[in-house]
Amino acid sequence: MPIRIAAIDVSHWHSIYDAAYLKHLVQMEDVEVVALHDDDAEIAAKRARAVGVGAVYADHLAMLDSEQPDFVVALGRHDRMARRAHDLLDRGIDFLMEKPMGRNAAEVRGIVDKATARGAFVAVPLPQRDAPFMRKAREMLVEGRFGRLSHIYIRMNRFSSARYPAWDSAWMLDPEASAGGCLRNLGTHGLDALRVLVDEPWVVTAAQISNGALGQAVEDYASVLLRSESGVLATLEVGNAYPRRTTEGATNLPSRDRLLDGADGEWKICGQHALLMAKDGMLRIVGTDDETSLPGEPDGNPAFGMLRKTLDAWRAGGPPPASARDCLRAVELIDAAYGLADPLRR
């Protein structure tokens, strides 16, 4: 039998743009997307037309009660996420929810506590865990090739936040709805990666944020310094300030939706005996006596792979590949960084 999936708050850009969860789900032979919800019925109908789904709801509770889905993909505004999660938990429906799952750690902790008490399957999409850099780094850590670890560096500077209003998610630029900009949105990926690579408590030692590039009410750049319990140092940089104008990667969109595209990214982990770096689609390994370059592009679409892995784990009755508790650990660090950051400066 196919997995009957419904989606909540599909005005979120990841519904059909960027990660494009709905487009991946309707391609899966063992999945039936039975209904879509958004408080804005016009946007929900537009999303439904884009992926060929017939049933549309402006009330998520009515959708859940009427359609009785097996599984839910929950997207939406950050200030509504926690309430949606509790609605799903109270109805006993397992789900995957977009990060950050709430406006702050307190909201996410409430979800984790209830999910744990009820034994619920609550997943979070963190596809960076399976990126070639992360796979190679974990392999080298297990083999002891780094020796004593020194530091980790992660930079994710993505294209302009102009994409949010163009993709029906203008709320992302409203700090009351989003609870932050690039750090709240992108920071989860980098901070979760730190915990995967060095599985011990981390603390934020310094942070700064700026809206200097785009002048929005939320930050378009953030830098965060961290230290692990054993003394590994980390630097996280996230931003929406990649300046190049191009339509590459967006040619399947209507012309009015073609936005700034591209990214400036770099990931490094360095130890006593080795350095692993990912940049410009390549992996570079530098040892004490040699240097190697390897392809660094993912084998397939990361979002599709994450959805497939999550649904397979759910079907098998196992734990999610990335859980609400994993998200909470990252959100706690994001909250700490905001607490230390200077006020926004233009």
Strand content: 25-35%
- Count of helical regions: 11
CATH architecture verdict of the largest domain: 2-Layer Sandwich
| Total domain count | 2
Helix content: 25-40%
N-to-C CA distance: 54 Å
User: If you average the pLDDT, what whole number results?
Assistant: 93
What coarse outline follows from CA principal-axis ratios?
globular
Domain GFO/IDH/MocA-like oxidoreductase: 134-245
Domain Gfo/Idh/MocA-like oxidoreductase N-terminal: 21-124
Keywords: Oxidoreductase
Pfam family, one: GFO_IDH_MocA
What does this structure look like?
With 346 residues, the protein is an alpha/beta fold. The chain has 2 domains: 3-126 and 305-322, 3-Layer(aba) Sandwich (Rossmann fold), CATH 3.40.50.720; 128-298 and 332-340, Dihydrodipicolinate Reductase, domain 2. It is built from 11 helices and 14 strands. The chain has helices at residues 21-25, 41-51, 60-67, 78-90, 105-118, 132-143, 163-166, 175-178, 182-197, 302-316, 324-340; strands spanning 3-8, 31-37, 55-57, 71-74, 94-97, 122-123, 149-159, 202-210, 221-228, 233-242, 263-271, 274-279, 282-287, 291-295. The protein has an 8-stranded mixed sheet with strand order 8-9-10-7-11-12-13-14, covered by helices on one side. It starts with a strand and ends in a 6-residue tail after the last helix.
